[in-house]
Specification:
Nucleotidyltransferase, domain 5, globular, tRNA threonylcarbamoyladenosine biosynthesis protein TsaB, single chain, 5 helices, 6-stranded mixed beta sheet, 5-stranded mixed beta sheet, Gcp-like_dom, T6A_TsaB, 2 domains
C-alpha cells in the first residue's frame, strides 16, 4: 500500500496501456524510467504481462514495491480496454495497490508534447462506424490538459474549442482515416511521430493525478468506452 508520506516524485509508479494498436508498459523507480513498447495489434494479451515483468526486472524490484498503478482507461478498442483494466485488477488486488485511470486521448497528447513540444494538441482515434474519439488539449506546466470533453463523433461534426488560435499539433489514427479533419484549421499540423498512447508519458499524468487526489482503490477502477452501449463487468466476486 502506498506510503502516504511520499510525494508524487518519490512514488514507484507502474503504467500500462493496451487501448489501441500500441502495447506499452513503463515504470519509474528511484528517479529512473524503464520502458517497453510495441505496435502489436491483436497481441496485447500475450505481450503486456512480459512487458510488465521486464520493466520490474530492469528496476530490480517486485510488484510489492509499486506504490501506484496507472492504466489506460480508454477510449479505444473495447478489447484493448478490457485487457488493460483486467490486468490492472489482477496486479492491484493482491497487493492492495492504488490505481489511477488515464485517458488514452490525454496520454496521446502528452506523448506528443514529450516528443516534440507544442502548446495546443488535438487527439483523434478512429472509433470505427464512421466516428472518431476526439478531445482537444492545451499544455500547462508541461502537462496536456483537456479543454473539451471526450466525445465520439462523426468527423463532419467535429469543431475546435472556441477562441482556438495558433499552431495545433494533431495526433492519432483518426486523422489518417479522416484526413478532412486537418481542414478544421490551416494551423493544424500532423504530429507524425506519435499516433498511439505511450505508457511512458502516463507517468507524468499519474504523478499529477496523485497530487490531485485522483487515485483510487482497485474496486473503483473505471474503464471509459465513451460509447455508452458497452457495459463493463468486474471480475467474479468484485461486483
Amino acid at each position: 500500500m502506498t506510503d502516504i508520506q511520499k510525494t508524487s516524485d518519490e512514488l514507484t509508479i507502474l503504467s500500462l496501456d493496451t487501448c489501441t494498436e500500441s502495447c506499452s508498459a513503463s515504470l519509474v523507480s528511484k528517479g529512473k524510467i524503464y520502458h517497453e513498447l510495441a505496435i502489436v495489434p491483436r497481441e496485447h494479451s500475450q505481450r503486456i504481462l512480459p512487458m510488465i515483468d521486464s520493466v520490474l526486472s530492469q528496476a530490480n524490484i517486485k510488484i510489492t514495491a509499486v506504490d501506484l498503478i496507472a492504466y489506460g482507461r480508454g477510449p479505444g478498442s473495447f478489447t484493448g480496454i478490457r485487457i488493460c483494466t483486467s490486468m490492472t485488477q489482477g496486479l492491484a488486488l493482491g497487493q492492495d495497490i492504488p490505481v489511477i485511470g488515464l485517458s488514452s486521448l490525454q496520454t496521446m497528447a502528452q506523448t506528443v508534447y514529450d516528443d516534440q513540444g507544442g502548446e495546443q494538441i488535438v487527439a483523434a482515434i478512429d472509433a470505427r462506424m464512421g466516428e472518431v474519439y476526439w478531445c482537444q488539449f492545451v499544455v500547462k506546466d508541461g502537462i496536456a490538459e483537456p479543454v473539451s470533453s471526450e466525445v465520439v463523433i462523426a468527423p463532419d461534426l467535429v469543431t475546435l474549442a472556441p477562441d482556438t488560435q495558433g499552431a495545433i499539433l494533431a495526433t492519432g489514427t483518426g486523422f489518417d482515416t479522416y484526413p478532412q479533419l486537418l481542414e478544421l484549421s490551416h494551423e493544424l499540423v500532423p504530429a507524425d511521430n506519435v499516433k498511439f498512447p505511450d505508457a511512458k508519458s502516463m507517468l507524468a499524468l499519474a504523478k499529477q493525478g496523485y497530487t490531485r487526489g485522483l487515485s483510487t482503490s482497485v474496486d473503483e477502477l473505471a474503464p471509459v468506452y465513451v460509447r455508452d452501449t458497452v457495459t463493463w463487468k468486474k471480475l467474479p466476486g468484485r461486483e
